[in-house]
Design a protein that fits this description.
The chain has 339 residues and is mainly alpha-helical. The chain is built from 12 helices and 4 strands, in the order αααααααααββββααα. The protein folds into 2 domains: 22-40 and 190-322, Cytochrome c-like domain (Cytochrome Bc1 Complex, Chain D, domain 2), CATH 1.10.760; 52-183, Cytochrome Bc1 Complex, Chain D, domain 2. It has helices at residues 22-26, 52-62, 75-78, 125-134, 143-151, 154-163, 171-183, 191-196, 205-215, 282-288, 291-295, 311-322, and strands at 234-235, 248-249, 252-253, 259-260. A hairpin with a 2-residue loop joins β2 (248-249) and β3 (252-253). The longest helix is centred in the middle third of the chain and has 13 residues, at 171-183. Keywords: Electron transport, Heme, Iron, Metal-binding, Oxidoreductase, Periplasm, Peroxidase, Signal, Transport.
């Protein structure tokens, strides 16, 4: 049985595409609030169906520094539940005490995604986990090292043997456990959801005006669509003087990549914004993608048009975005087993 949303309260940026493709949005019908109604179940792949025990094991692994080479960081070091499952800095510090190349993307609501990382190079959460676990600039571990450490812990050893009797502790079972837990990380109900369900007092009139701007004049919903406020797409939005620089990859400079539209759930917890953490506030980001930002020479987006907006309207959009912050209980870190 798939877990229901209400049974899975998990705490938890809004970046380059706020208002992108506004011209397209103006030529299509604006969505109404019912288009943002939450789903009732979490999708899990047939190859890795939901298991409460496997998700619990995955949570322990997610918070356990044993999975890093120097045992000084865990998945939660960069994907911190207190900050919308991101890091509250422009670029998190990796294993070499150096900033990573991009801002940490949230792992929130990723059960609905079909590709991962800002550039979509992984096709499953299992594949995605390999990157930070083994990258020299991040956790810098090897799977042989991870197996050795986990096997030395009696609770881990017996738990893996019970849940995966034919496999025990190996690469696939570690990755499946992590991915199963990550698929349960779904933003809990927010004031916006109560408004969608018909409670007119759930959000302010200011926030309602902001929603109308979001789906209308500003064109945000052209890409930030659906209940999670993302269409899951990847777009080249041009180069900004204060934000974009060539992105380094293993193959050298890649220039402007197409980057993933992030979910906006819990966005008020997830500053700074953009794939390089270039904006400290939602207000600054909205201005950046308006015609005011363009007039300052800050925007060079492709296939999109800036939108006209006032300071009052910016505040209204921010008020709406703040209604996407969940009202669920905070996530508690697990008690990790000792050796």
């Amino acid at each position: 049985m798939l877990p229901t949303m209400c049974a899975r309260v998990a705490v938890a940026g809004f970046w380059v595409l706020l208002g992108a493709f506004a011209a397209h949005a103006q030529t299509s019908l604006s969505p109404d609030r019912q288009d943002f109604r939450r789903p009732t179940t979490i999708p899990f792949p047939e190859s890795a169906p939901y298991s409460r025990e496997i998700a619990t094991l995955g949570k322990m692994l997610f918070f356990d520094p044993r999975l890093s080479k120097h045992q000084n960081m865990s998945c939660a070091s960069c994907h911190n539940p207190s900050f919308g499952w991101e890091a509250p800095v422009a670029r998190a510090i990796g294993a070499k005490s150096r900033p990573l190349s991009r801002h940490t993307p949230t792992v929130l609501n990723q059960a609905w995604s079909t590709s991962f990382f800002w550039d979509g190079r992984a096709q499953s959460l299992e594949q995605q986990a390999v990157g930070p676990l083994t990258a020299a600039s991040e956790m810098a571990a090897s799977f042989d090292l991870i197996f050795t450490r986990l096997s030395a812990v009696p609770l881990y050893r017996t738990t893996f043997e019970r849940l995966f009797p034919e496999e025990g502790i190996n690469k696939e079972t570690v990755l499946r456990s992590l991915a199963t837990y990550e698929r349960t990380l779904v933003a809990a109900n927010a004031p916006f959801d109560r408004w969608v369900e018909g409670d007119e007092t759930a959000i302010s009139e200011k926030a309602k005006r902001g929603f109308n701007l979001f789906v209308g004049q500003a064109g945000c919903a052209a890409c930030h669509a659906g209940w999670a406020f993302t269409d899951g797409g990847f777009y080249d939005v041009g180069s900004e003087l204060v934000l974009y620089a060539p992105v380094l990859s293993g193959d050298g400079e890649t220039g402007r990549p197409k980057l993933k539209v992030p979910t906006l759930r819990n966005i008020s917890l997830r500053a700074p914004y953009t794939h390089l953490g270039g904006f400290q506030s939602l207000e600054d980001l909205i201005w950046h993608y308006s015609d005011a930002g363009t007039s300052l020479g800050l925007s060079g987006r492709l296939d999109s048009a800036p939108f006209s907006i006032t300071a009052v309207q910016v505040a209204e959009i921010v008020a709406f975005l703040e209604t996407l912050t969940e009202e669920g209980a905070p996530v508690r870190a697990p008690v990790l087993p000792s050796n």
